[in-house]
Amino acid sequence: MKKTLFVSLLLATAIWASEGKDIFNKICYVCHGDHAQKSSLGVSKVIAGWKAEKIVEKLKAYKSGKLNQYGFGNMMRNRATKLTDEEMEAVAKYIESLGKPKK
Ligand code: HEC
User: Which of 32, 81, 84 to mutate to test the pocket of ligand 1 (most atoms within 8 A of CB)?
Assistant: First the structure.
């Protein structure tokens, strides 16, 4: 019983991790770079290696239409509204896992 639980937890984590990567490679890479290493449109910060909580916080704020830091909030709002809370978590974890880009 315990073993089954453990294995399914492992599996769930693995699926979650690959989901985050999928979302990133489908939606986010276009503007933020394939390893999140670019400043989007030359205005946003480089988000690679950011703490997942911070990314989720920003995504939720964009989704609600409250965040517009450099005049492109709507661009992020369009993307964020397509994501559920779980998907935000997953993609944020993936971005965190990329680590800070090497200069
Ligand atoms: C069409 C281009 C585009 C796409 C696609 C896009 N972004 Fe963005 N992103 C931007 C721009 C432009 C900003 C700055 C918005 C503003 O004015 O606040 C930004 C800002 C952000 C920020 C905050 C950065 C900061 O400087 O505070 C995060 C986090 C972020 N994006 C994550 C994502 C994630 C995750 C995805 C995929 C689900 C994504 N973005 C997809 C263009 C994009």
Answer: 32
